[in-house]
Every structure is written in C-alpha cells, then in structure tokens.
Amino acid sequence: MADRTRTVVLIGAGRMGKLIAEALPASGFELLGTYDVTSATELDVAAPAAELAIDFSNKASLPHTLAYARRTGAALLSGTTGFSDEELARIRALGTRVPVVWSANYSLGVAVLRRLAAEAAKALPSFDVEIVETHHNQKVDAPSGTAKLLLAAVDPSGEARVTYGREGMVGVRPEHEIGMHSLRGGSVSGTHELHFFGTDEELCLTHRATSRQIFVSGAIAAARRLLMRPAGYYSFDELMLG
Fold first, then answer.
1. Active-site residue 135, yes or no?
2. What number of helices (H) and strands (E) belong to the chain?
3. How many CB atoms lie within 10 A of CB 9?
4. Fewer CB in a 10 Å sphere around the end CB: N or C, the chain?
5. Residue of 135, 148, 181, 192 marked catalytic
C-alpha cells in the first residue's frame, strides 16, 4: 500500500471499536466516522464515502454495513461474530464487488493455530477431539467465533457430530464426535484449547490472548493488505500467511 493516509469508517463503538479507533491515526488511516447499532442506518445514505469500512459491531448492523460497501465501493474488514450461515454467505457475496475479509479472530497466533489444528486432525484421525474456549463474562455469544473456526479446521467436511457440553448419563463417547465447551468468567480476553486424545497420550494445542491489542494489530495489518487486493472474498489466513 502506498505511504498515504487511507480513509475509513468504523462500525462498532464497543471495546474493540474503541481500541481500533485509537490505533488508526498512527497506522496511516483517517477516521471519517464511527457508527454503532443505534446509528447504523446512517450508513445507508448519510455516512461519508471511505476507502475502507471496519466492522466490529453487532450482527444487527449487517444490512447497513453491506449497503454502505455497495454504495461507496469501500473495502470491508469485518470481525463481528454470531452470524448465521446465510449472513456469512451475504458477506462472501459482497466480494464480487469489493475486497472483503471476515474473521472471527484477527490474531496471527490463532491463524497459525488453525493450521496446526488442521495438520493434527489429518495426522491423528483416530484421536478424540475436544475444543474448549474461555472468555470474559460480558461475551454474549457461545461458542466463540474462533472456536467455530477451529472446528472447521479439524472437521472441514462438517461430517462430525458436535456435542455442546455433556450432562447426565450420556453413554460411551461415540466415534467421530467433537466436544465443544464454553467457559465464561472475569476479564479473560480469550483462551482456546484443542485436545486430541489417543490411547495413552494427549496432544493439546493452546492459544491465550492476554489483551485485545493483538486483535487490533492483526486487523489493521490485514486492512493494509486488503486495500492492495482486487475485489474478492479473502480469509485472514490468506492475507497474512499466503
């Protein structure tokens, strides 16, 4: 990307949105406006045209975010979670018009974890897999978007039976089951663990986020690369790891 200031609108005034807003000026971006779920309708017609829209808001803002990108031709970087499959399909479809990246997690370490998880699942097909994610007590969706990304990494075909927690007389663990568990408490920024259980051995892959700054840095780095790309739908891994 050329060494010039790029314009951006920010959708999301929560904790991530505020951190990104603070980091943008020093990263070569001019913030033209900030919107949240209560003011998202302004994106339809009134918000100024920018080169990039960064979305860390609420899924309810999606129609307005998409309308803004279509109206202005802005590239879209989204980190909002909780989308349905249909909503994610709408985000991917926007890639026919503008550069788009969506990720539930903009940590470079998590991107590497996903690759390691996929390799481990291929190498250990007979092992039992459990995914455990832990977040702060203010997080509203479960399991986390990152946990879903890890699930897709270990089960790309979507054929495995996924069990969300266990209670009571659940019986013997069936083959090809993946356990998904969500813990909530305190101010934990995010911890994700993948357990691969074999006979007499266990492999555990873990990523711990100690602050949200890693997601801010990753999102801004991805934004720079996204602005160099033609229209298309990109993953964070594609942009950062090639």
1. yes
2. 8, 11
3. 24
4. C
5. 135
pLDDT of residue 50: 98
Catalytic residue at 122?
Answer: no
Q: Which residues of 22-37 are buried (b: 16+ CB within 10 A; e: fewer)?
A: eebeebbbebebbbeb
Say whether both 113 and 203 belong to one domain: yes
* Enclosing domain of residue 72: 6-102+213-241
Q: What pLDDT digit, counting tens, does each position of 115-127 carry?
A: 999 999 999 999 9
Q: pLDDT tens for residues 154-198?
A: 999 999 999 999 999 999 999 999 999 999 999 999 999 999 999
Low-confidence ranges of the chain (pLDDT < 50): 1-2
What is residue 140's predicted lDDT score, i.e. its pLDDT? 87
Other Cβ atoms within 10 Å of 2 Cβ, number:
8
CATH code at position 43: 3.40.50.720
Distance CA 203, CA 205 (A): 7
Q: How far is CA 196 from CA 11, 23, 122, 171, 193, in A?
A: 38, 38, 11, 20, 10
Please indicate, yes or no, whether residues 50 and 116 belong to a single structural domain of this protein.
no
What is the reported pTM? 0.81
The angle subtended at Cα 26 by Cα 25 and Cα 28, nearest 5°, is 70
- Among the listed residues 18, 59, 136, 139, the single catalytic one is 139
